[in-house]
Amino acid sequence: MRFETKCVHVGVDKDETFNSATTPIYPTSTFRWVDLNTHKGFDYTRSGNPTRKALEQNLAALEGGIDCKATATGMAAITAVMQLFKPGDHVIAGHDIYGGTFRLFYGVLADYGLEFSFVNMGDPGNVTKAVKQNTKCIWIETPSNPLLNIVDIKAITTIAREVGVISVADNTFLSPYLQRPFEHGVDIVVHSTTKYLNGHSDVVGGAVITCQEDHARRISYLVNALGLACSPFDAWLVLRGVKTLGLRMEAHQRGAMALATMLASHPKVERVYYPGLPSHPGHELAKRQQYGFGGMLSFDVKGGRPEAEKVLTGTKLFQLAESLGGVESLMEYPETMSHASMTPEARRASGISEKTIRVSVGIEHPDDLVADMKAAVAAIG
Ligand SMILES: Cc1ncc(COP(=O)(O)O)c(C=O)c1O
Question: What distance in angstroms lies between residue 205's CA and the mean position of ligand 1's atoms?
């Protein structure tokens, strides 16, 4: 099956009682046993549920993994993976990862004895330099959030293999339609399914996808032991959303390219961050390791916070809201919104400034999006 066909068919667990064409929701906390040794594959919904299982099989197939655990949020997925490590272990992560991941690492897990180094992964040499005797994990996020820096996944996983540590990729920004990290040697993939996989801004969820038996077993144990799994209803919503993933991603990136092209030549715009533009430093690498450039872009306006605020409050179609990956276009201000949980120093080190605006381009017609944004940017004065 090709990718789009897998989206629609894999894991879709049809109900044989009434021959439903789609997976039913099983909103039950518990399942009846036949006798003291036998049940029909599920006993308690924290540990497993048929609707959730359908989603897990689907996502494992889309990423090319062997197993998946669907979690209540993206952060729950990241929490599950981080429980693979113990106090004293060292983790290397990008300096420009999602602010919530930074907060979990720096603000929570560091107190439990995990050590972190945040490096500019744009140069794999920085990762090599950061490796220590107790390094156990390299955390990759590419394209990075919000500046769309591209990390060479193959180069980083080669380092991980050489030093014998686990590599993890957060593939939220592109979805498996546009990037499949297992193809580049990554060990574990995580997602915030809140974003493109669900695609309709009506659920929060996450997923951990594994490609090795020992990781699959441990993640499954951890998700059950820590109580991180998602509800059957949320699993059903994501499974419903995934069916149109390919179509949506094509529309997202069509709009993003049109918008980036307009912004790149706008006199009130200082810089555009979109890997689809040939001027983007990661353009060639993105062409090599991705199947497209995605629907996220950021830009710096000329001026500072007042000018940025004018744009952020001056559009009709782009809503001022956090999150990304939904069918509707959103805009947000990393400085006080998505990346507020980073220290100001960490924000500056990663290149986020008071001029930076992040855009999640929806699936509206590109001409409408370009016209709306053009008018808002021109209104800076
Ligand atoms: C790249 C990335 N990873 C993880 C998360 C966390 O996901 P959630 O908000 O579903 O917990 C986000 C949320 O914005 C994200 O952008």
Answer: 9
